[in-house]
Amino acid sequence: MSSSVAIVTLGCKTNQFESAAMSEQLQQAGYQQVAFDAGADLVIVNTCTVTAATDAQSRKLIRRARRLNSKARIVVTGCYAQIDPQSLNQLAGVSLVIGNNEKGQLLKYLDENKNLGEIQVSDIRSRHVIEPLSLTGFEQRSRAFVQIQNGCDAFCSYCIIPYARGRSRSVAVPEVVSQVEKLSANGYPEIVLTGIHIGQYGQDFDSPTDLLFLLQKIEQSQFSGRLRLGSIEPTELSEGLYRYILGSDWICPHFHIPLQAGDDDILRRMNRHYSTAFFSGLLQRLQQINPEAAIGLDVITGFPGETDAQFKTTCQLLRQLPFSHLHVFPFSNRAGTPAAKMPDQVTGAVIKERAQALRQIGTEKNQKFAEKFIGSKQDIIIEGGCADDLRKGLSRHYLPVWIPAFSAEPGESLQVEITGVYQDGLIGHR
Question: Chain-centre distance of CA 100, in angstroms?
Answer without folding.
Answer: 16
